[in-house]
Amino acid sequence: MFWTVTLSILQGCSQAVKLFFLTLLFALPLGLVVAFGSMSKWAPFRSLAYRQQEARGFARWLSQLRPLSALTNIIVWIIRGTPLILQLIIIFYGPGTWFGTNPWNAFRDGRMTACCIAFIINYACYFSVIYRGGIEGVPAGQREAGEVLGLTKRQIFFKITLLQMVKRVIPPMSNEIITLVKDTSLARTIAIIEITMAGEAFMKSKGITWPLFYTGVFYLAFVGLLTLLFSFIERKLSYFK
Q1: Total domains, the chain
Q2: The pTM is what?
Q3: CB of 124 within 8 A of CB of 27?
Q4: Inside any domain, residue 126
Q5: If you write DSSP's letter for every residue of 14-42 in order, what string do you get?
Q6: Alpha-carbon separation of residue 130 from 2, 135, 174, 177 (angstroms)
Q7: CATH code, domain carrying 139
């Protein structure tokens, strides 16, 4: 029985690992894009302030409006303010409820595809806040020094800002990534057999509870490996201290 349970949970573990790595693969770069959007200073109506020297009221507000930054921040606020499980339900069941047909059925593994999209959107928003904090944490004087040396904005970002940002975001990023490991259990909401659901299946079919508690060993092992990995990365980046 022990080996049967272990093999079944390992199959669920493969689904959790797949979801974990696909989420990181897309959410990490997407989070940086979202961070840039939230920090955007693009103000298409800024010229109103120059045309009207004493712009007031609506004209003044419109001249200061940064639509890209505002839209991005609203999206991030919505995603961070609602539970991931709710987002997962809306993304998978919503289209079928609203339009009468479920587009995820067109995919070979539609449930996993929908789950990955929900996780990627959610974690990209969380990562964007971490990225933004890391970028804004780099002293402005260092960017100004780069400009004095004749570096372009792109060179300043990749050679000065990015390297120091990475050091600053590793601790909070590691916390979010470890949380992602545990959040993979939410995939069971749309009937994806991951670690927890694999253990729960034995409780329902065999009437035994230990497989459900046994799943905790797999989560602890996964988190333990990640903890060692991030400790190694932090030591390698300690030259910024």
Answers
A1: 1
A2: 0.88
A3: yes
A4: yes
A5: HHHHHHHHHHHHHHHHHHHHHHHHHT---
A6: 42, 9, 11, 12
A7: 1.10.3720.10
